Amino acid sequence: MTSSSVYRGPLWFQKLRALERMAYSVERFICIASLVVMVFATGYAVMTRNLHIASPNYGELGLAALIPLTLVGGAMCTYLGSHISVEIMQVAPSRFLRNIAEIAAAVFSIVFACFYIYSGVILVEEFRYTGDKLLDLGTPLWILAAFFPFGMGLMIFHCIVRMLCVVFGAPKYEESGAAA
User: Fold this and answer.
1) Which burial class, exposed, middle or buried, applies to 35 when counting CB atoms under 10 A from its CB (0-12, 13-18, 19+)?
2) Domain-by-domain residue ranges, the chain?
3) Res 71 pLDDT > 80
4) Burial level of 144, CB count in 10 A (0-12/13-18/19+)?
5) How many CA atoms lie within 13 A of 76 on its CB side?
6) What is the pLDDT of residues 108-122, one digit of tens each?
7) What's the sign of the alpha-carbon dihedral 26, 24, 68, 35?
8) Please, which pLDDT band fits residue 87 given cuts at 50, 70 and 90?
9) Of 39, 41, 58, 131, which has the most beta carbons under 10 Å away?
10) Are 145 and 123 in contact (CB under 8 A)?
11) Cα dihedral 137, 140, 141, 143 in deg (nearest 10)
12) SS3 state at 133
């Protein structure tokens, strides 16, 4: 059976999968950028400290980059199927049990993400109201807190698409996609 003959679902679902692939590309860019910021900011901070160079603490940016890396990275891992992995999803003797486990993991992930979205919105509102900032460079905390609802919203989106993949019998990933 060729990849062109594999059932992929209705046209709206195919367009939703294309949107998911674009979201994955954005997530991957954010995670790579966060890692680059972490490496250079931390390296610069270590260098200036050891060479006794008076400089602002750019290491703070490295710590701040952990937030988008963690929250958007969690969504990216949900797309890749590596965030919440239940062994039964791979080894269950029947397709029915694997599908039930897949849907259950997606539902639990959605519930988890909803709590984080709620908490994140409260944090964003609180930090905008108080004007809280990181100490050394004055980075506004509301910007970092905005990654809570953003990353968890992406996670919910990926979970919904994964459940639709089960419903339509579509592969979780495209053959030329990220997990292939």
Assistant:
1) middle
2) 11-168
3) yes
4) buried
5) 17
6) 999 999 999 999 999
7) negative
8) low
9) 41
10) yes
11) -120
12) strand
Tokens of 117: 């979205």
Do residues 129 and 155 touch, judged by C-beta distance below 8 A?
no
Q: Strand pairing partners for 133? A: 140
Q: Two tokens at 152?
A: 């968890």
**Furthest C-alpha separation in the chain:** 65
Angle between helix axes 66-80 and 147-168 (nearest 10 degrees) is 0
**SS3 (DSSP) at 140:** strand
In 10 A of CB 108, how many CB atoms?
Answer: 13
How far apart are alpha carbons 81 and 159 in whole angstroms? 10
| Best CA proximity match to 155, nearest among 104, 110, 89 | 110
User: What is the predicted pLDDT for the residue at 153?
Assistant: 97
